[in-house]
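Homework help thread (please don't just give me the answer)

Our assignment gives two proteins as sequence + structure token strings and asks us to describe the second one. The first is just a warm-up. Here they are:
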Amino acid sequence: AAAAAAAARGADVDKLDGLGGAAGLPANVHLLTLMRAEEGDPSRLIVRLAHNFQVDEDQQLSQPARVDLAQLLSAAYRIRGVTELSLTANRRKADMPKPRAWSAE
């Protein structure tokens, strides 16, 4: 899943030292990207998270994971809003066409 978090303070992503405070990420989630959005004001971030396990790959770690972005980014940012984006972060998920149903013959 991809998410864009708008930060209230203009903290510099390059100087971000210590994500997560006490919470951090669950063992089955990986932080792929934490960067400033290329467009707009510098307080907008692109945060990409990935689940490390496929369905049924591991009895516990394959379960859905929850990430509290407010806790994850609390050291340097205050989240004002979140928008789920495409993997390439160029389109809002809500604006994307629905996936097609493919038949295997």
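The one we have to describe:
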Amino acid sequence: VKRSHWPCEPAKVLVGHVPSSNEIISYGSGYGGNSLLGKKCFALRIASCIARDEGWLAEHMLIMGVTNPQGKKRYIAAAFPSACGKTNLAMMKPTLPGWKIECVGDDIAWMRFDAKGQLRAINPEAGFFGVAPGTSESTNPFAMQTIAENTVFTNVAETSDGGVWWEGMDVELPDDITVTDWRGRPFKVGVSPGLAAHANSRFCAPADQCPIIDPNWESSEGVPIDAIIFGGRRPHGVPLVYEALNWAHGVFMGASMRSEATAAAEHKKKVLMHDPFAMRPFFGYNFGDYLQHWLDFSDESKRGKLNLPKIFHVNWFRKNANGKFIWPGFGENSRVIEWICRRLDSEPDLYVETPIGRVPKVDSIRLDGLKDPVDMKELLSVSKNFWLHEVEDIEHYFTEQVNDSLPPQIASELQQLKSRLSDS
């Protein structure tokens, strides 16, 4: 391992974006999103402005190919806040027999409609810049294969045999191997206080090293997007998966996303934050105008006939009364993807109508082969009281943060949700 230090001056960080000239100025920051200027700074903040002007979308989304046992392939884009499982989903090893996942990208998607009205997406990046802690052979074996060589690591721990280490790697170190933490200090696993690797330590590797990279990942025309998924860390109240009623309702779902803060955010953990479209740190222009752009994106009077993707929301992180995760996650998330694909085929009798959207019937998600029982009734429940409070918080957020810029159609979706809850 070659050790290098990124020059930074945390007390005098200056990061500026000038959309009118497509310029970025960055000084002093040691945070990857503000140091690797082609990534969040250009590919999201500046690109979102270009996309607004040119009629496309630049989004904080993974892109994955999903092939069912019959050989039918779909492409899905998904927006989660940083460190909420985008890379794990994009490189998922399905537990359901016969299903295959291929990775187009794990972080950024540029999307536009083609001449036939099909939404298509490209990954503008050449590699992966993933969160290291928690990445292991059990949580993301394909990521571990991707970063086995030719990889840059930042703020991880180093081992005396020339390797790297982080919390959640699930690797037992031999007794004769010593560890140096991310600050360059001696560290004894299980004994030393604090973390050996920074909670937001990263790996950076070329995309073509991924063993499940999609064969069309560099296609200039992009891959056809059949579904868009929003999600975040919600320990309470939000079901495992639900489907939007229509495009405008789906845009509202994205606008009202909330998630527990992670180490990739600037706030302390366990704080529930609004993170619309997982773009809160990356909007290049007014959020209200951004929402209107999403709404206008579906305007067939301007674009002609469109094949709009279905929109879903997922939550892998719901907990029970004992504070334990109800859903096993990781490769088992293929069971949720299977339900979504069945809905893309308009398979009936898979859901119940609820005030928040279409929630799976308790027996519609496959549980065969799970190691432990899952309380699907609790996992899919929609509490009226919880969602009435959720509506109040969303309304307060819109009033405080968006105010007069909130598109009337989004305000209407909020009122419709409130009415559906009151009538339920």
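TA reply:
I won't write it for you, but here's a hint about the kind of observation we're looking for: The first helix runs from residue 32 to 35.
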